[in-house]
Amino acid sequence: MKLFEYQAKEVFRSHGIPVPPSVLVETVPEVQKVLGEIGLPCVLKSQVLRGGRGKAGLIPFVRTEEQAVTEAQRLLGSEQVPMLLVESAVDIDREIYLSVTVDPVAATALIIASAAGGVEIETLAQTDPEKIVQEPVDITIGLMPYQVNDLVYRLGLNGDVAKQTKKVITNLYAIFEAYDAELVEINPLFVSKQAEVIAGDGKLIIDENSMHRQKGYERTRAYYDSDMEFEAAQEGIPYLQFDGDISLMCAGAGLTTTVYDLVNYEGGSVANYLEFGGPNYRKAVRAMELCLQNESKVILMVTFGTIARADVMAEGIVDAINRLHPDRPIVTCIRGTNEEEAVRILRAAGLEPLFDTEEAVRKAVAIAKGAC
Amino acid sequence: MKLFEYQAKEVFRSHGIPVPPSVLVETVPEVQKVLGEIGLPCVLKSQVLRGGRGKAGLIPFVRTEEQAVTEAQRLLGSEQVPMLLVESAVDIDREIYLSVTVDPVAATALIIASAAGGVEIETLAQTDPEKIVQEPVDITIGLMPYQVNDLVYRLGLNGDVAKQTKKVITNLYAIFEAYDAELVEINPLFVSKQAEVIAGDGKLIIDENSMHRQKGYERTRAYYDSDMEFEAAQEGIPYLQFDGDISLMCAGAGLTTTVYDLVNYEGGSVANYLEFGGPNYRKAVRAMELCLQNESKVILMVTFGTIARADVMAEGIVDAINRLHPDRPIVTCIRGTNEEEAVRILRAAGLEPLFDTEEAVRKAVAIAKGAC
Amino acid sequence: MSIFIESDTRVLVQGMTGKEGSFWTKHMIDLGTQVVAGVTPGKEGLEVEGRPVYHSVRRAAAEHEIDAAMLFVPPRFTKDAVFEALDSGIQKIVTIADGIPLHEMVQIRAAARSNGAMVVGGNTSGVISPGTAMMGMFPYWIERVYTPGRIGVMTRSGSLTNEVTAMVVRAGFGVSSLIGIGGDPVPGTRFAEMLPLYEQDRETDAVVIIGELGGTMEEEVAEAMRDGRFTKPVVAFLGGRTAPKGKRMGHAGAIVTGGKGTVEGKIKALTEAGALVAERPRFVGELLQELLK
Amino acid sequence: MSIFIESDTRVLVQGMTGKEGSFWTKHMIDLGTQVVAGVTPGKEGLEVEGRPVYHSVRRAAAEHEIDAAMLFVPPRFTKDAVFEALDSGIQKIVTIADGIPLHEMVQIRAAARSNGAMVVGGNTSGVISPGTAMMGMFPYWIERVYTPGRIGVMTRSGSLTNEVTAMVVRAGFGVSSLIGIGGDPVPGTRFAEMLPLYEQDRETDAVVIIGELGGTMEEEVAEAMRDGRFTKPVVAFLGGRTAPKGKRMGHAGAIVTGGKGTVEGKIKALTEAGALVAERPRFVGELLQELLK
Q1: pLDDT per residue rounded down to tens, chain C (293 residues)
Q2: Residue D69 pairs with which residues in a beta bridge?
Q3: Cβ of A105 under 8 Å from any chain B Cβ?
């Protein structure tokens, strides 16, 4: 679960990582109200989860109240920005990159740092890999002080800035541990002209499999790009919204992604990605309801299940059809455990089950194009 | 630092290990007052740090209020028992032994358990070693649930008692960790006739080197066998009280213990053991003051120091003599770093420094016997 | 011969008395797997399919020779169960659990490595050598997928496995050993770490890799091929070629590797190393035909 | 030749710029020890006795070949410093710190073992081969103790070492290598683990062990002698023969070993294994004379 910047910074603050003074607001008058507290110049930081906010003009730097109001109106008026973090500007001397993630090969935590902060680390990894320093950490032992020490000197830091950065690294690792983080990142970590070390941004992604022990984060609408994705998430159904005309209702990430590819290869376009497999294979009614909310022309079902029994899926599909009376054709390719029974059930309901994925994809594309 | 039973049980209670209802009292009227709350029969448990309380008659089981008052008077009147823990009696079905300590060879924590509780584990180790089960625990990884599971089944426990015991073991290990314990022990761990698992006794020894992170335990007089030992401890001076006539003021545990042996070999007797070495080699005045409070006949000083410079010790001794005007002879055998200077200082002060430990011991014994 | 799980591999089932555990124990035995015992704390004395159940792995290991442990254990207890198996010296462990906490999975992999053991999974169906034995949950009775043969299959995806393997079989081949590496970001064992087993297996002529975007496991296969550590033919299918980037959260692992993790990068690496990359599942079978016939 | 620290052992001093660190660095060099560099975080660029100081062990190890690390580091930072040395592959580490938390000392010993390294200490003066080199704090200038010779000395006690060793020298012998195992309940290296080094050392004719009550280290020496793992003569001196039992808290380690840990038990074990046990320090020299002359 990826947190918003303001949430990550709340975590930073409570774990001893300095952040600039800031206030979270949802309306333009609130922006005006907090300017006195935050001061000018300041930064209006759109609280959206996608990256590249700077390039997209979503974190304007404002020098006057007038400018602040104009920019706040632009951002909050866009409907894509539900909240702004109004944050004091820092008098920046230099920027550092800092993150903790997992190294799946070495089976360690991995601290990544660079004295060249403020740019994307992926870009830096390609252009100047020597500017990146890494420190693996045994998760069982935890981060040792000597590692932090060595890291800051590898970054070329000295004196009090080195001391402050050691504290930030130590606390960042503590957050990584306490929050079961997939990634916790500060980019940039500012060194101000007053030689203070302050987190300019904050990214914290909590491991989905550890959410049971990470209380206090409710997935509200703001975490999703669309109403439909939010609605599907409430059901625990993986769902992505597109603007094509074929609704996918397929089993598992791998097969659904492959069907997505095949639809594109055949010249079709996908209306939505929906996983109807794994733990969701009994949720045919809810899944079909989601598909029907799209303006797609056909629903394409492709599965090849093991635990997810084909006959149970078929029963679910027939049940969904009886309840929802879908207004568009359905193409099925339901295979796997008990598939003979599935075929019987589908045929009894008047469907024509297919057995080959590519054939099913071609048929769906043809229907979408009005060819049949 | 060894805690009192009542303190260990407070720790148990706050870490989810069941203990019988109990109240700590210091006077006989208090005992009468709490009987209503605790009920009869109950146990009056003398809060002293030494072992073998049962055999010494220090934990009487009482059935009536009259009996309780009589026993409380006997115990609290003895001056050796400053506090009683008045504790509900448990209807005992069986007793288990449980402890966590350190295995210095394997470099692990070690859980030791036995279904034959209530006896001294050292005795059991000699008579029935097969009745003892052990489980080493990697301190870095911590105790894993599977180890607890395997342990309780090795103890032959079943059903709900097994389940409760698992929880006790898990919590006991958590205490071992959280309290930097040298030893945490429950002996006996009762299984009541109602199949409840309850800690009958509690022993918790905190590692002396970790006391800086174990707050809330002040070493009051109650922790010491004598006023003198308490007084010495306030100064950080290792001190033991005996009833002989030679006061030792020697360097380090090893050498002091050896001088103790030599005094005994030579037919002398020790008034007190005192380490005047290591971090205490500059505390000559305080150390001599302690020795002079004894009714010894001579003070015997034997050192052979490295960091503890002989000249500094000699200066301290001379200073102490000038300030305290000791009323008894002093035998010195101060060697090691800068010993030439030490000899000069001691001689200038009218002492006759010796260089051989056995010679010094013989001289002290002779003085104590009035032979010189 | 087959790899990882062979006909004489003595398997312990942890979590044997549970619903999934007992169901798949039966199927593993039916296929021919040497299931020797099971473990469920508190259930010692029971039997499942005639196999004795013990309170703990140690107790089972005291009574039986055990080569491998099959875990039907919930994700939150998986670390404990794996450590328990490792503690008894078991060197081959398969865990199907979906939802193992990331940091625990890192510890599992680290512990396995330092014990010289292999943990396969989590989030997988397991390992199967069709016609011989399996550890996991495979509908081996579906003949158009689980036909014995001489093609090794390794997969990151549960749902794609049947799809792609069916194409291998349709092209006239069969499967020697199929290993579900698992779909988690930190699998216990990685593709490249399985290659030495396939390299040595006399019953495997070629290996099919079913990969996807993210991570560097496919690139590591390419590296093993380039270094000459793996010399048999490789055909790969990678899902997500046309997946729009914006819809996927940045993959933490991609950070370190400087742009690795994209499907394009994987195709390039594999192709340069001499592997054939199939654009569609059907092409996997066709490419194998080209290579082997 | 000598053991552990030899004339060509390249030593790194951690905590070199501190008061004790710089003082004893000078003395180690004066004795002939090959001190190549030092470490104090934040002090890179400084020199102590002409040796460069680095921010970290890694930075020092990048510039120098290092065989051993000598720690002048406070007890609470000792675990970190030992792990740092181990991380750079240093196999011989001496720590003098008195007051290392027990659980951290357990982790230090465990880490050293799994790295195949030896940590000597804490709570010791260190290791010295008189006339050759030392790691630690020994007043080697006191000739009636630190005379070179052919007797190995191992000791648990700081304060007894000079006393007993002086008796060795008074009897006409000298010391090959003296190792202060340290007085903590969990020493990094135990008596018996040092024996193979003395066994192989051509300059050691016999070993003197200075022990005391508590623990099982002396019993382990007896075991090594009985098993034939150590074949040179052993003379032991044990403090605390007449110490009253009631005054000492029960030693946690004694629990497991069923009555081991008493001085009587140690004397019995050592005597049965063929060692000579001296009742007084003076007798150590006399027993050596009997054995070797």
Answers
A1: 578 999 999 999 999 999 999 999 999 999 999 999 999 999 999 999 999 999 999 999 999 999 999 999 999 999 999 999 999 999 999 999 999 999 999 999 999 999 999 999 999 999 999 999 999 999 899 999 999 999 999 999 888 999 999 999 999 999 999 999 998 999 999 999 999 999 999 999 999 999 988 889 999 999 999 999 999 999 999 988 888 765 553 333 333 344 567 888 999 999 999 999 999 999 999 999 999 97
A2: D12, D93
A3: no
Asked if A43 contacts A60 with a C-beta cutoff of 8 angstroms, the reply is yes
Distance in angstroms (rounded) separating the CA atoms of residues A231 and A238: 10
CB atoms C56 and B144 under 8 Å: no
The 3-class SS string of chain D reads CCCCCCCCCEEEEECCCCHHHHHHHHHHHHHCCEEEEEECCCCCCCEECCEEEECCHHHHHHHCCCCEEEECCCHHHHHHHHHHHHHCCCCEEEECCCCCCHHHHHHHHHHHHHCCCEEEECCCCEEEECCCEEEECCCCCCCCCCCEEEEEEEECCHHHHHHHHHHHHHCCCCEEEEEECCCCCCCCCCHHHHHHHHHHCCCCCEEEEEEECCCCHHHHHHHHHHCCCCCCCEEEEEECCCCCHHHCCCCHHHHHHCCCCCHHHHHHHHHHCCCEEECCHHHHHHHHHHHHC
Cis peptide before A188 (omega within 30 of 0): yes
Strands (E) located in chain C: 10-14, 34-39, 47-48, 51-54, 68-71, 92-95, 118-121, 126-129, 133-136, 148-155, 175-180, 206-212, 234-239, 276-278
Chain B residues lying within 8 Å of A141, measured CB to CB: 140
Report the Cα A368 to chain-centroid distance in Å.
30
Q: How far is CA A168 from CA A113, A178, A183, D55, in A?
A: 12, 15, 15, 19
Place of tokens 């079978």: C285
CATH of domain C145-293: 3.40.50.261
In a domain, A135, yes or no: yes
Q: What is the biggest distance separating any 2 CA atoms in chain C, rounded to whole angstroms? A: 57
pTM above 0.90, yes or no: yes
Question: In the CATH hierarchy, which fold is given to the domain comprising C1-122?
Answer: Rossmann fold (3.40.50)
> Domain boundary residue among A88, A107, A136?
A88
Q: Which residues of C are catalytic?
A: 251
Q: Which two tokens stand for residue A314?
A: 């078929």
Whether A31 maps to a domain, the answer reads: yes
**CATH number assigned to the domain comprising residue A350:** 3.40.50.261
D-contacting residues in B 276-305 (Cβ below 8 Å) = 277-278, 303-305
Across the interface, do B257 and D239 touch by the CB < 8 Å criterion? Answer: yes
Which chain D residues in 68-107 lie under 8 Å from chain A, judged by CB atoms?
77, 80-81, 83-84, 87
| Interface contact flag, B149 C57, Cβ < 8 Å | no
Q: Which residue, among D197, D193, D157, D162, has the nearest Cα to D177 in the 3D structure?
A: D197
Please tell me the number of Cα atoms within 13 Å of B84 on its side-chain side: 32
B93 in contact with D, Cβ within 8 Å: no
Q: Say how many C-beta atoms besides its own lie within 10 A of residue C241's C-beta.
A: 23
Of B145, B153, B159, the CB nearest to C80: B145
Nearby residues of A36 by Cβ (< 8 Å), 6 or more positions away: none
Amino acid (one-letter) located at B295: E
On whether both B270 and B325 belong to a single domain, the answer is: yes
Number of domains in chain B: 3
Q: Which of B134, B140, B146, B170 to mutate to test the interface with C (most CBs of C within 10 A)?
A: B146
Read off the pLDDT of residues A254-266 as tens digits, 9 standing for 90 and up: 899 999 999 999 9
Of the candidates A182, A278, A358, the beta carbon closest to that of C252 is on: A182
**Ramachandran angles phi, psi of A292, nearest 5°:** -70, -20
Chains touching C (at least 3 CB pairs under 8 A) are A, B
